[in-house]
Amino acid sequence: MAKLLFAIFGNPVSHSKSPLMHNLAFKGLGVDGCYGRYHLEEGRQLRETFFQLGLKGANITVPHKEHAYAACDVLDGFAQKVGAVNTIVEREGKLYGYNTDAPGFLKAISAFDAQKVLFLGAGGTARATAAILKEAGYEVTILNRSAGRLESFEKEGFAVATFEAFDPQHYDLIINMTSAGLEDDTLPAPKEILEAVIPSAKACVDVIYGKETPFLKLSRRYGKPTKDGSDMLLYQGIIAFEYFTDRHFGFEEIEHHMKKAFTL
Ligand code: NDP
What we know:
The protein is an alpha/beta fold. The chain is built from 11 helices and 12 strands.
């Protein structure tokens, strides 16, 4: 059997840890697979590029998750619901689409004893994770700097607010779902708002990984436990690997090899 080929599509994509994570798991578990990265400028070319490269599967990162959704022949129920795909598997010439970001995030925060959650940001990542948290019984409030993206959250029954209209309450977890702090030193919301909610929170979480963002630094100054996006990244990768290998390996087995990517 020919070597199985996989890739991550994104723009930018050079920073991605996914090739290292998946190649470590292929090697450790004795799977004849190889995982690379592909800088894709035009999301509409995703499907054609996937087949040209002869891939068995792929992950998709910013800004192509909606294009990945459109590129699939078959969508699993959750990907269908949230309109974003970050994992594609080819089976008999058809592309099957999944969203593993959201279950990865759900697992990452399950370490905390939490019920009420405040999301800072209302982008694609917030959309998928808010839906799965709601299904799991969390109470999620969405706070965003502008009103536009809040409309659809409100229609789905979430409590929403812009910075101007926000009435701070107690939240168990405060989560940065924006890219504020990724390539700059900005906070995801005005400092006065953060200082009104962080002190009573049990913990603060960021989806950005590999650095301590200004948001996490501020949270730590209040003595709060913090968590960056590394576990989310690891867990979404493990769940994607389960799909890539048709659930041939268990979660912990994959984790054992894949997590080495975070210590190399
Ligand atoms: P974006 O990064 O495009 O962010 C969109 C949302 O964030 C919008 O609500 C936007 O507000 C708000 N926003 C963006 N910048 C700022 C800012 N400087 N201040 C305040 N609000 C801001 O969304 P994505 O959902 O694509 O990604 C969010 C983050 O999640 C990224 O940093 C990404 O790297 C990370 N991520 C991490 C993963 C992991 O495995 N750890 C997996 C997937 C994503 P507005 O509506 O007003 O424009």
